[in-house]
Amino acid sequence: MGAAYFYHLTRRPLDATLPALLGKAREAGWRVVVRGRDAAHLAWLDERLWITSGDDFLPHGLAGGKHDALQPILLTTDRAAANNAACLMSVDGADVTPEEVQRLERTCILFDGNDEAALSVARGQWKALTAAGCAAQYWSEDSGRWQKKAES
Quick one: DSSP state of residue 105? Predict the structure, then answer.
């Protein structure tokens, strides 16, 4: 049974935080799906991931290609990702179900702490997932480094 990790972004933007989390997930040997709500924003994240070089490069692709099933990291708006992911990273308030959290090794929910709407969505996700019996952790970077602030 997996757990949901909530990442409250206050110091670094999504495009700086996401690669680090993706790298950790890949180090664990997991295939990852990055689920968003806006295809244009996912395309922008795709471009940002391509400019990473050297040992930090993260092989990935945007959903809709003929090799989706082979992608170690797949960016998509679709609920049914084709890459057999063990880890889901939700961005931009993309939906996450309790069944996904329980089935996957890890679910990461990244949200912008400077956006009231994003905070509201994340709070709703926390309540829904923990009420459904999912293990959850809340991580904050307010101090300048990631610290676990709450666990359920």
Answer: S
